[in-house]
Write a structure and sequence with these properties.
TIM Barrel; 29% helix; 485 residues; 21% strand; alpha/beta
Length: 485
């Protein structure tokens, strides 16, 4: 037993169990979990600390151009460092295909961008232009290369795919073992609301919340689930922001469909009242779907506890509060010309730990599931990532459950100039981060270097426990023999 590193005496928690043990690591892999392990070449005393699987941030926008051309402030270096300080050992940002671009070129570009990352990474493809070549050649190639999930937008004029295109994409994904993700809001309802608000002079940031009604989310989630179920494909609804949306996800799951839901800190920690700040300050809080109300916050806590939603992601979309980001349309822009999104990659896990685990809303094991294990399972990384098990990567976060810190932008490691969570006091922070057996951060100091992260080729979607339930119209035995899939 010649361990490179031993983590001693901590309280280890996985999505299933909590126990006291030492963890022995060799060549970046966990090789022993036991009590009384001998010291390794390096040994960390974790007594009084929590030893958790490293977080997997599965929804973040890093070094990505928006549809309007705005670039996120974070590149793969600052974005990955910020993720690391927030308890994450890997992340899956988006590689965005804008119309007219080849998927092959997009993936090559993002692989180059991501080579700076200090933590392991993969990509979800954003598909906006599902041409024959994309569907028949480029997506299958992407799947073979281990990019096994992608996102489609049901809103935003420059990103939206029609229902017909979405069916093509869902079927292609199903055929190749990929998971489709969707931003589900009804485009027409939003555009109708925006037009009426702007025509009447209601242009301040607070009207962003009014322009994206809860009903627009419910309509699109319902339609997305219907489309996915029609062709027997799995679907993940990202950033669910309403009780009704979460209920639709839960109902589809109860009916046996491979439907998943994600929510994000902004919907549990902030309300639309933040948009009503003086001057242009409200623009800092423009994201889509928008912030809702206090009732929705408690509804979403309930859904996290009940398991209706499986993922807790930041949707880190860092646009600075200056002309490069939020104020690109001027110092006091109308709400419909503000870049959508807010930062939060570093606070995703600490917020959930402090307000979820410490305040008794969630168990520690649920916290691990929501921040790590479920993402590993849903996105084809488990059991290599997302748990602490013999044979898995030694991606480990050692948390001090009692450390109290007030959130300030100066304490963040991203490239932003504000945090929407400024001033919140949180209890419980990651203290030491280990990525594939190496100490990447300890006591507030970065130990990893540029390029330490590696691309993670992911496995196909795991169908265990689900079966595609095709309707009679798509089943040759009941549709006069027509082969449609
Ligand atoms: O407002 C948001 N969420 N911006 C980021 C892009 C997206 O829709 O996820
Ligand atoms: Zn979105
Ligand atoms: Zn997003």
């Amino acid at each position: 037993m010649n361990f490179d590193l031993v983590i001693k005496g901590g309280t280890v928690a996985t999505a299933a169990d909590t126990f006291t043990a030492d963890i022995g690591i060799e060549h970046g892999i966990v090789t022993a979990i036991a009590r009384g392990l001998p010291d390794g070449r390096d040994t960390i005393d974790a007594s009084g600390k929590l030893v958790l699987p490293g977080g997997i941030e599965s929804h973040c926008h890093i070094e990505q151009e928006s549809a309007t051309g705005a670039m996120t402030s974070d590149d793969y270096l600052s974005g990955s460092i910020s993720a690391l300080f927030g308890g994450n050992t890997s992340f899956i940002p988006f590689a965005a295909q804008h119309r007219g671009q080849s998927v092959h070129d997009v993936l090559a570009l993002y692989r180059e961008r991501a080579s700076k990352s200090v933590i392991d990474y993969s990509f979800h493809l954003i598909i906006t232009d599902p041409t024959e070549t994309v569907l028949k050649e480029e997506l299958p190639q992407a799947f073979r290369d281990g990019v096994t999930s992608f996102k489609v937008f049901m809103t935003y004029d420059k990103m939206i795919v029609s229902d017909e295109m979405m069916l093509d994409i869902l079927v292609t994904a199903r055929e190749h073992g990929a998971l489709t993700m969707t931003h589900a809001e009804n485009n027409a309802m939003i555009k109708w609301m925006v037009r009426r608000l702007v025509e009447r002079g209601y242009t301040e940031a607070k009207f962003h919340a009014v322009s994206h009604p809860a009903a627009a989310e419910a309509e699109a989630i319902n339609r997305g689930i219907r489309l996915a179920n029609f062709v027997g494909a799995p679907l993940l609804i990202v950033h669910v922001s309403t009780d009704e949306g979460a209920r639709l996800v839960q109902a589809a799951r109860t009916d046996g469909h491979p439907i998943f839901g994600e929510t994000c800190p902004q919907y549990l920690f902030l309300t639309k009242e933040e948009l009503d700040r003086p001057g242009a300050e409200g623009a800092k809080f423009c994201c889509s779907p928008p912030l809702r109300d206090a009732q929705t916050q408690s509804d979403l806590w309930r859904h996290l506890h009940a398991g209706s939603l499986q993922l807790w992601s930041s949707d880190h979309a860092p646009y600075r509060f200056d002309a490069s980001g939020k104020l690109s349309a001027g110092p006091n822009p109308p709400f419909n010309r503000v870049a959508n999104g807010m930062p939060g990659i570093e606070l995703r896990a600490p917020l959930l730990f402090s307000e979820g685990v410490r305040k008794g809303r969630l168990s520690l094991n649920q916290f691990v599931a929501l921040t790590s294990t479920n993402a590993a399972k849903i996105f084809g990384l488990h059991p290599r990532k997302g748990t602490i098990a013999v044979g898995g990567d030694a991606d480990i976060a050692i948390w001090n459950p009692d450390e109290r810190r007030v959130v300030t932008q100066s304490g963040m490691h991203d490239a932003m100039d504000y945090t929407p969570f400024e001033g919140m006091e949180l209890t419980g922070w990651p203290e030491t981060m280990i990525t594939r057996g190496r100490v990447a951060m300890s006591d507030g100091t970065l130990r990893a270097t540029r390029g330490d992260g590696a691309f993670m080729a992911r496995a196909p979607f795991d169908w265990t426990g689900y079966k595609a339930q095709l309707p009679p119209e798509l089943t040759p035995e009941t549709n006069f023999g027509a082969e449609l899939l």
